[in-house]
Design goal:
With 455 residues, the protein is an all-alpha fold. The chain is built from 18 helices and 2 strands. The chain has a single domain (38-356), classed as Orthogonal Bundle (Hydantoin permease).
Amino acid sequence: MAVSAAGPARPGEYGDRVVAVEPGDIEPIAAQDRHGTPRQLFWTWSSPNLEFATIFVGVLAVSVFGLPFWPALAAIALGNGLGALTHGVLSARGPRYGVPQMVLSRLGFGYWGNLVPATLMSVTAGIGWFAVNSVSGAFALNTLTALPLPASLAVVVAIQIGIAFFGHNLVQAYEKYVFAVLAVIFAIVAVVTFAQSHPNAPGGSGGVGGFLLTTGAAFGYAAGWNPYAADYTRYLPATVSGRAVGWFAALGLFLSCSVLMAVGAAAATIGGGADETPTAAFTGHLPGWLAAITLLAIVLGAVAANALNVYSGALAFLTLGITLPLAWRRAIVALGFGAVGFVLALLGLSDAGAAYENFLLVISYWIAPWLAVILVDQWLRTGQDVAPLLADRSRIGWPGLVSFLTGAVVSIVFFANQSLYLAPVPKAMPQVGDITFLVGFTITGAMYAILGRIR
């Protein structure tokens, strides 16, 4: 039965079945299909971050942004803390409305205005993040097995797409059972890495600029999950504690990101071969047996992250209102995203490090103003019944869209992305670093607070 988002709930036919293709897509979840507890969100948001892409943010902080270990650790904690805090706030709304996060985004942007952030979400999650994590998984599998890189990439992508194809329950089950494996392996890696690191070694010339770049990169990574938040809480019973939902989601995200980024920063103080792949360089200081199981963990972690990326990217795409005469629309869209992401990952194998650095910063550029609209709108609508607005096609949402675009455009003059665009402000004052996400959030939030109240 095809229904519009936030319209009638689909019939309760999915329940907690794991090996079953999830029916429907972005419509509200029926009470009969609601299951789970807030506690499960801890591993839902820990497992996808126990992977090499998280570690590499810490490597960038020391090796590229020029920070000593301890300032890098402070910047990482700050960026992750901000991203985890907003993630908890957004996650808490999922059980009440039973719809994906990008459907809830319509509250601030309207049905038509929401097409802009929904498109950005589809591209960054279903294609961009998918390609980034697939590359790290492919490098790890290649180093572990000597299987050619393209073949390693094909294996990793096939597993990821398979999980996302079946849908929510299999995704959640994978995150749950892989968590214990990843947590144990990376805990051992952390101990060995910190024992060999040189945390008090002098860093580069990063200064304040490097600190803000690291904060922006960490925020971009953690907040990059924010547009997914309600996707994994909408199946919880409507009666669960919203506060518990928010805290478990935020804690899983913050701890996993902060610990592994710290491991990456510590590893960067050890050094590695310049001609090695990123994953081989990271595992180079580990004993042979530990290096092997770490590479396996990197593959499993990449799958954990991309199962979410493909699944949520498909939901965001369907939020655009595109009609597909298919029984398994979400599953088919997930296959399509996987195919496109595979091609991009294949093209990005040659210069993965630089591409990842650019990608992290670009994500924070659009997510910060999007978050400002969502959070201010939630504050403005305190106590209101907003459910009827979710499927109202008459709402253009010009206050949210105008505020979002204004904040995003004005903040361009603060871009400090060396290989893409160095804007006038950081060019004139390199010590400022990259404060784009702060500027975009502040301008957008202030503007929407005025326009939204008028509206």
